[in-house]
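Hey,

The postdoc asked me to send both predictions to you directly instead of through the lab channel. I've kept everything plain text so nothing gets mangled by the mail client. Protein one:
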Amino acid sequence: MSRLYTENLSVGYGERRIVKQLSADIPDQQITTIIGANGCGKSTLLKAMTRIIAHQEGTILLDGKQIIKEDTKALARKMAILPQSPESASGLTVGELVSYGRFPYQKGFGRLTSRDHDVIDWAMEVTGTLEFKQRPVDALSGGQRQRVWIAMALAQETEIIFLDEPTTYLDLAHQLEVLELLQKLNQEQGRTIVMVLHDLNQAARFADHIIAMKDGEIVRAGSCESVITPDVLREVFHIDAAIGKDPRTGKPMCLTYNLVKDESTVLHAVPEERIPVSAGA
């Protein structure tokens, strides 16, 4: 049994249900990506699992306990979240922003201890942001700022990190920079990473486990090979996709796709020996 999972979870706003009777396991010490069309409930699921928003039905359990009953600071020592659009850090230096990650451990007047300072410096060193410690967050590039927000999440010293579209608004190089950092944290420190991604090939390349959602429900969850398939992508995104193999990683790769207009017209997976060597390079 996974440490974190949901059972028959329903989440909504008013009378409208966004997530419907959803049961999902988050594998420990692996990278899980959640994919699906806009409005399918990906971000809503993330917010519910981190208790940012309330759920109406079902349960969310972490280490056998319902998160709704957990003390806020205790829960913040177990999981961290980087939202899709982090709040403005205007006027803060990098060091000041990262120090906010120590909030769950502060007592009394909230003064930082020597232990807190050590963790803050470690988080910035791991994310390659220590050299920016005294610089204003606003003066950094998009990729640098994203690494600083990740450093703040790391400063919480949680074993589980949630990220909602961490590559949004970043160019290709900065997207790869952020995803490789998350992969490194998973592989070297055993962090459980859960993130929403729009790019299917990035999801397949970096994930150990993928959850494909449609209309608030799970269409399929499992390995990249079992989820990134023409049938699943047809159902989830309403596209007719040709799936091959990434020549660098061996992971499944969406080579091309069309919108589904005629159900009688279907592209099939491209045989490996016919995939151009340059694909995905």
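Protein two:
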Amino acid sequence: MSQEETTSSQVELEEFETQDAGELEALRAERDELRDKFMRVLADAENSRKRAERDRKEAEMYGGTRLARDLLPVYDNLNRALQAIPDDSRQASGALIEGVELTLRELTNVMGKHGITKVSPAAGDQFDPQLHEAMFEAPLPGTKAGQIIQVLTEGFLLHDRLLRPAQVGVSSTPG
């Protein structure tokens, strides 16, 4: 082989290697870009899965909120019916009263089974705006400002969410 042919072959080989290196670098860049896109899509899919699971759990726990709120007046009315019966009539209406008490107890059990619990403050407890609704404020000797002096209706929680605040009267007596 002549020197000219050898030089020509070397130039061709260098051009081929340069072209090959450029192609290889382009392929690596494309691979890295595709890997990055894949990782982003994978992370988005995982986030969507977690969000769907969280939404499913929340719907399971709190999906019955409207029904639960609609049942609270039934509880209140049964409770009021029992409280309205005069003591002298209790003996005469024993079976009826027992039926209403059983119905109220069953309603309370069903509500408890579904995560509905009572918020039952007592007179003397401290007012908590997260759980109680102040219906009136009045000075009452022997109490401190912010103490509950009367409970008008019980409140209810659905798991950890407030369905209805307990309606209370609060002392305004300065401490």
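Summary for protein two, as requested: Helices lie at 3-62, 65-84, 94-113.

Thanks,
C.
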